[in-house]
Amino acid sequence: MPLPDNLQSLHSQEEQLRGKALELVRQDQNLRLHVAVIEQAMNLGDLLRQCPTDDEDMKVIQILGMRMFNAFGASLKLALSGYAQNSALLMRDVLETVFLVDLFRGDRDLIKKWRFADGKTLKADFSPAAVRKALDARYGHTSRRREETYKLFSELAGHPTIKSAWMMRPQKDGDAVIGPFIEKTSLEIVLSEMGRLAVQAGQHLVAFFPGDWQQGFGQRLGFAEAARKWLVTFYPEADSA
Known about the structure:
The longest helix has 25 residues, at about 55-80. The chain is globular and about 50 Å long. It contains eleven helices and no strands. The protein is mainly alpha-helical. It has one domain (about 5-240).
């Protein structure tokens, strides 16, 4: 059954906008860096799932890596097709997953606890808020930036708040529009946040590769190079510290 005319017309518009977005990416080195590190992080998620294991805890990390792969792919597709707000909604999913994998990276006994947790334990120890609190305590962070970032994604994309209308405006002081649109500033913001998440996701996934498993060394090296180039470009002070 063919798509109704209206939906076919919408799809055609999305494809046209994708072409416009790809041209913007082609012309901008920073946008290319974001896309490159996103691809490399996705490569790690795909590589990790191929690692042979009978360890049920490792299988959890593989599934979480696959979840991030899917979310990055869908988020990027939406961003390039003109749906910035919906792209950001998926990035909140990636953010939650990145935090959870970071928690497991620091204490691998928590993976088994999470696997067998009942509803009460999941809420107390593994809810998004509980995970953020645990990470802040582990790293000695007092600024609550994890909470602020999660709240921002929630307000702009995750919940129908008054602030969420900001992401439906092609121009900052203009009217909200229905349907997809491509505007360079909003595309830059979305891809930059996606790139930031990709760097974090890849860094945590790399830690779970067995030291004696040499397959995919090229993909791991590719991520390391892309992440370093991204960090040097956007956070030069961190690289020189």
